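A quick word before the example. In earlier lectures we treated sequence and structure as two separate objects. From today on, think of them as two lines of the same record. Here is Pre-mRNA-processing factor 39 written that way.
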Amino acid sequence: MGDSEAMVSEGYTSAPYGDYNASAATVESTGQETAPIVDASHSVNNDSLVNGTAPVENGSATDNVAVTAPAAEHGDNTGSTLSTEEERLWNIVRANSLEFNAWTALIDETERIAQDNIAKIRKVYDAFLAEFPLCYGYWKKFADHEARVGAMDKVVEVYERAVLGVTYSVDIWLHYCTFAINTYGDPETIRRLFERALVYVGTDFLSSPLWDKYIEYEYMQQDWSRVALIYTRILENPIQNLDRYFSSFKELAETRPLSELRSAEESAAAAVAVAGDASESAASESGEKADEGRSQVDGSTEQSPKLESASSTEPEELKKYVGIREAMYIKSKEFESKIIGYEMAIRRPYFHVRPLNVAELENWHNYLDFIERDGDFNKVVKLYERCVVTCANYPEYWIRYVTNMEASGSADLAENALARATQVFVKKQPEIHLFAARLKEQNGDIAGARAAYQLVHSEISPGLLEAVIKHANMEYRLGNLDDAFSLYEQVIAVEKGKEHSTILPLLYAQYSRFSYLVSRDAEKARRIIVEALDHVQPSKPLMEALIHFEAIQPPPREIDYLEQLVEKVIKPDADAQNIASSTEREELSLIYIEFLGIFGDVKSIKKAEDQHVKLFYPHRSTSELKKRSADDFLASDRTKMAKTYNGTPPAQPVSNAYPNAQAQWSGGYAAQPQTWPPAQAAPAQPQQWNPAYGQQAAYGAYGGYPAGYTAPQAPTPVPQAAAYGAYPAQTYPTQSYAPPVAAAAPAAALVQQPAAAVAPQAYYNTYY
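And the structure line, produced from the sequence above:
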């Protein structure tokens, strides 16, 4: 057995894996490519094409995942030095391996300079495809380079790596089969390759080009029974162009004898059926003869029916043969009518670096919902595999895939999909690792869960608040309270060493709250906040935490102390850097007024309200004034209408007391994600992770989502050395959040996202 034959027989297992973040748009298949004609003296054993184990799913990650290109044999010995442009581009991609445009420019430059220097070409393609294994067009170009220099073993190797890296791509299998047809003469070898392909993509709605190529090949062989069998298999599946295939099948049935259309198995089955009919007919004839004798005795002259002549047998059999396939066709068309809307909404069935639009992302979710309801597990898996090619940069689809497989009891498939997501395609996005940590903890793999959190802390997104909170919560659940406290303290220590840390106030506030929830130690919680004020300027998130902490403590409450700190934040000070925005300052002022309304006295309330009016009313924007004027006009109209009917003016809404009433504690603040519990309440339990958590709204652990928030369409991978902070906005799943009721909401926003009645939520609701 030759080297290439052994390679395929054992399965090619060293294919490179990398971040799925590329496009093959510039080299898309038209389905009409012709593989280079090669010298037969260089060809490999035909069996090497087909006798291997079938490839695992797209970019499958195993226990021994390779994350670099298999270029050891090439190394840097490319036979020539790099040009200045090549050196520049290599430096770019080494610094950021996801810089796709730099990669494509490097490939173009290398091909221009290297010409027939195959070692140099191999090096750049190996490195590129290690990062972007789903770019089927670049696999095709790589194989063409190997074919041009006559290295047929290498061509087969490249194609085997390709179908391992992008298993559910109709196009790459079509390229491979086209190469085989143009290179080898053994029909069985080529057929086995087609059959390997059809195992994975034969039911794909867009698999017509591959089926067409298979039919074309069998027409060339004039093996009509195989052609008929291919049509039969096609008609069983709701794929594109079913009408054309059924018409072509009927045309074939009309032009070829039935004996040529039937396979050997079908002919044998038909012979058995004919023999059975003949036996039954003989028995029937014997009975009829006896009846005739009795009839003659009785004087009867009626004749028994005769069997149809042999000449009428074949038309009947042909009608039956076509009828069976027509029933398949009708059934497939019925299912096609249910999915055609989803399929037509898939504008980009292949991978591309450009983001998908919201409609396409929602369509994939809707399509998956439908197929899951249908209950065919094989269809579910195939559709998920198609989905994670197109949507590979969106963690939400990987998370959904893993969750569905877990719920279906397919732990192996779930583990495989999670490995591909965390090690290949979205490996630099924090939320997939946080999901993996939760799943591993759920399955009893505590060491794996800790490793996932540690990866986020050290490489993916150091200092990410969500990761710190979730990790600390897990340690607390496991009974390791000291480890949970230590985690907060370690991260706080790191952040204190930075000149400007936006996350430090959030960490202090969250640590204080966590400490109080799990230990009920009010003094420790207060010390944490006081320590925070020694290291950071008072800010909205820190003051919110302090106000709520005071709200749940028994009297007397330190209102005078709070007043000084609040004023330090809300009053503009030219001598000190105020890190709070004007909106944050106004919201904090309203929160403090609400607090005083419950725990203060009339004098303190008046002082705070007067200060609020003085600080924020004169700075209303023109748009706000216009909006308020419109509200007043509407209120006036409502008053007139009320007088018309009963002469009594309607009561004005409480929100009119403050033009920015949506930010008040009762209206906007209470709808924020988390809240301090009453002092007498039992410690709250951790809640299930919400993957849509984020912290880019300055105080994400405490603040709500903005009105009408919808996730941007495309994820941007997080660099390993990313600054402490929130996920990139692009990593969020496509979701819409009901906005809080706002008097000043723009009319356009109301059109795009109708306001929904939002029940007040707890101040904290995400983690505990």
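Notice the following. The first helix runs from residue 3 to 10. We will return to this example when we discuss secondary structure assignment.
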